[in-house]
Amino acid sequence: MLIEELKIKCMTGMLICLDRRHRLVFVMSEIFALTHAEGREMLEVSDANYRKMLSRSRKKVYNFINRNCGLVDPDNPCHCHKKLNGFIRTGFVDPENLLFYDDKVKRVDETIRRNRDALHQLRPFARAQQLMRHQPLYDPPDLDRCINDILQCDMIGSLM
Fold it and tell me: Residue ranges of the domains in the chain?
């Protein structure tokens, strides 16, 4: 559970490295599997603009993961099990206060419920995308309303 906690925090950190708008596009398309049409409609941007933002965010996240993460390639330099003790010492991972393990947590990939495995495996970033989609997702009672509330938030509006 501690290694899983570290992995999730690390991937969250990668997403935070994107600016808000690119992070939103990445999460909508790569993690929640919205189509370009759905994403551009929600953000009210042109198809070309949406595709370019997605391309930039994919490149930044996946290039970093593919060059560094041992979960994608065992020859890469970063391995969760080797870094765990150091992150516990610094307080980045607190064994007494795990954030991603309780009865409200589900996995993004379990929630999407779309079977795109065959097509997914053909994509160059398939393994890295799979890691991103295996993050925890709190299961609110009304997910549609929750997503709509987030998209209507003033902070999201200011990104456009």
Answer: 2-159
